[in-house]
Amino acid sequence: MPFAAIATILLISYILQKVPKTYGSDDSLNVYQKFQSGQPIQYLVVGDSIGRGSGAENPSLTWFKQLEHKMYQKDDSRLHGDYVVQSGSTAFEGLFKLSQRREHEHKDLIFIVFGENDRKYMSVDDFMMTYEALIRKAKHLHPHAELFTITESSLKQDEFAAAIERLSNHYGATNVDMRPIFKNSGYTEKQLTKDLVHPNGHGYKFYANAIYERFQDNVKREKSIAELPSKLHAHSDLELTEIEHYEKIKGFRPKGGYYTSSEKGSVIDYRFNGRILGVKLLRSPDGGEIKVWIDGNEVTTLNTWWPFARERYIFITNGLSPGTHTVRFEVAGRIKALDHDTLPYVRIASIITN
């Protein structure tokens, strides 16, 4: 009987240690104080395909799930995630999607993961503006949250990485640069990635370990939470808005929430006042190409092909002069897909500007 009683007491003690702590509603504590007192931590990821863990062999091997597991196993600390992520997205898309969120639950920790796609669509100055606007939006929504910025392992453009580092230093964010960590890991890019861009589960383990080590270092030195100082970029206080009403239309028809056309030469025009311009559209397996004209000048061609249907918010340009502008979208009649017999549909919902 004494032995059974002792065994029962030990079993109950063990179970109580493993029961999730549910007293994590004291949002007056910052993330490091919650960690030290054993309270659950709420985190948010705003990012692209690496932000969402693309390339991992299964969901448990994404960087954030490995981080959750490591924090729980080593420190009995529980992390709960929320995600504003999209493959192929830029900081512009992250900013717009974050601005559109209707409910903003308390967050203790925010991860920002962009750069690899941004360098394909914009200059480093445009990137710095939108990335800073994203930081400021995140801090406006969650003023007590700590910021971690991730410089992706695949980012080859040093000027983009330098912009992330500069902004991180200015805002007191913790920047985790994965490029030297991958380089000095002893493994090749092929061994750490699925496709030389997206890490595999082994590669994401390095992400989780690096973030964990920086987090622990912040705890030890009692780091202050990231602040919201004066802005660095003159135009980073972006408040993006949609314009849904077109000025002129030919060939497009309303269908399923989009103006849709598969006819070459179909056009839709919008008028707007703003320095920056983006477009809200549907990318899909039958998505075609669109020529974009601003004030009568052809500025770019957008490809709306994607292996599955997704609504996207695409950056077009920045630095437009003050005053009224006109943007025209024209169906090019081409599609970048393996099935060349597919009709090239274009589906546009609105434009996005400040």
TrEMBL record:
Transmembrane segments: none
Residues in SGNH hydrolase-type esterase domain copies: 45-205
InterPro entries: SGNH_hydro, SGNH_hydro_sf
One protein family per Pfam: Lipase_GDSL_2
Designated name of the protein: SGNH hydrolase-type esterase domain-containing protein
